[in-house]
Amino acid sequence: MYWTAQPGPQAYAVICPADLTLFGGSRGPGKTEGSVGRHIIGAHQHALNWHGMMIRRKYKDFSKIRSVWDRVKNAGLPMERIGGENQVNYCRFNNLAVTKLQAMGRAEDADDEQGNEYTEITFDDAGTMGYIGRLVNKLKGTLRSSAGVPCRMFLTANPGGPGHGWIKQTFITDAEPFVPRIDPITGFSTVYIPAFLKDNIILNLNDPDYVRRMMSIDDPVLRRAWIDGDWNAFVGQALDLTLRHQIDPIPIPSWAQIYMTYDWGSSSPFSIGWWWMDSDGRLFRFAEWYGWNGVPDEGCRMADSDVAIGIIQREKDLGIYGRSIIRIATPDNFSKRADVRGGQSPSTATTFAQYGLFLKLGNPSRVSKIRQFRERLKLQVSTDGKLIKPPMMLIYKTCKNFIRTIPTLAMGENSEDVDQDGQEDHCYDEAGLICNEFPITTAAMRIDGKPPEPPPVSATLESVGTDRSVLDD
Predict the structure, then answer these.
(1) What is the DSSP letter of 60?
(2) Spans of the chain, pLDDT less than 50
């Protein structure tokens, strides 16, 4: 016997017939071995009709997968692995089955697979890929078999990382473990198979010190994620948005200045937030419009004119149309855009101005944005855990997409900023505009402790900057 699944979750995962399976949870339950096992079984059953692919973010990340393949080869599996450490590898079986080991560092890498056919696609450690949702969707078109081999996708992951949000939304939220969810229209099935360190009998017997090392972790977030497999714990979380930041809707004071923030999007979602500020400089996000098609990080491709009309209608519904509203937008709204004829169409700011919506150029600095965002979310609590005073940013519970996406953002691998590679950061970019507009200064930075002064309310077409060409983001 070259390889056999361990009883329990790994055995369930290896034979799971769902179209899209997540096998994961804590560290060390045998996720990678299970994913390799599916390819071994598929190759044995379908011979030359088996075309598998295993994906990691970088080639250097394949070391564990390569070692598993080499181990089963040394145990007598009739196959060979071809390729070096920094290139595509092929696991070729004597019966002509093949599994490819391919790195994909961005969703666009899937475009190179156009025309290829795969019977099984594995995304190993999928949480490290902020673009995992788009990558899965792009590769669904390659999942086919003219020989009638069942075609499936298989993911492994731990809680955390830039792909955490999409994985949690797709497999965990409102779902029961081991119970497939079947789309009533397409019949496409997804399922989550949780696995934990205790389920890996071989590891527990051969390396009991690993268990003790894991149990010695004193970071509570790491313990919840890596030992408990808790998807509500988030290693590498950029912004800690909690229930204490969320409030039931309250009336907007008649004296309060209203602000609108806008992050443009087309194939990716656009995000609009409406805010008011109290006398302490505290921001209240009371409404939003998220331009998506219902699929995470996919936009609805609305024309600028339709967005402008939609803004006006929503402000009428909110009862704020006609009030003074300062509208702050990201730099790309002031750039002319290419049209289908090869020329240039008016900028979003110019189009909005035709509807009486005048945009102000916001400060897009990512360095200050993450700092100011965190300052506003900071909770001041007493020694017994009670909130001393409300945070400087409060979110109405009706702002569902802000609440959905902000907690899922992860920090970049080598930067003090949110990872920009494929994460659903549109609410963050949009809300960051008002954080930069009204920076909070700490006591050490500002002695008088006064809140920032609001900017002038007036805005003219000239101040919009409609004559700008391309601006750097």
Answers:
(1) G
(2) 443-452, 455-473
Q: What is the pLDDT of residue 276?
A: 97
Which among 199, 205, 200, 196 has a CA at the least distance from the CA of 226?
Answer: 196
pLDDT for the residue 340: 60
Q: At 442, which amino acid appears? A: T
160 and 247 housed in the same domain: no
How many angstroms from the chain centroid is the CA of residue 304?
26
Query: Residue 130 belongs to what domain range?
Result: 9-227
**How confident is the model at residue 447, as a pLDDT?**
37
Residues in contact with 184: Cβ distance below 8 Å, sequence separation at least 6, in sequence order:
none
How far is residue 290's CA from residue 263's CA, in Å, rounded to a whole number?
10
Measure the CA–CA gap between 345 and 338, rounded to whole angstroms.
6
One domain for residues 430 and 361: yes
Round to whole Å and give the CA distance between 290 and 378.
25
Residues 341, 315 share a domain: yes
In sign, the C-alpha dihedral spanning 313, 318, 324, 328 is negative
3-state secondary structure of 14: helix
Between vectors from CA 92 to CA 88 and to CA 94, what angle results, nearest 5°?
A: 170
224-261 burial, b at 16+ Cβ within 10 Å, e below that, comes to: bbbbebebebbbbbbbebeeebbeeeeebeeebebbbb
Q: Give the pLDDT score at 198.
A: 86
Tell me the two tokens of residue 162. Answer: 């830039």
Rounded alpha-carbon distances, angstroms, from residue 131 to 278, 325, 331, 336, 378: 38, 35, 24, 28, 29
Identify the pLDDT of residue 467: 36
Q: Compute the distance between CA of residue 142 and CA of residue 119 in angstroms, rounded to an integer.
A: 9
Tens of pLDDT, residue by residue over 55-76, are 999 999 999 999 999 999 999 9
Instruction: Kindly report each contact of residues 445-450 with a partner whose C-beta sits within 8 Å and lies 24 or more positions away, as own/partner.
Output: none
Residue 446's pLDDT is 39
DSSP 8-state assignment for residue 399: -
Q: What does the alpha-carbon distance between residue 61 and residue 59 come to, in Å, rounded to a whole number? A: 5
Q: Are strands 387-389 and 380-381 parallel, antiparallel or unpaired?
A: antiparallel
Number of domains, the chain? 2
Cβ 51 vs Cβ 63: under 8 Å: no
Q: Is 376 exposed, middle or buried (0-12, 13-18, 19+ CB in 10 A)?
A: buried
At 119-130, the pLDDT tens digits run 999 999 999 898
Domain co-membership, 49 together with 117 = yes
pLDDT at 420: 61
Residue with tokens 């389920």: 199
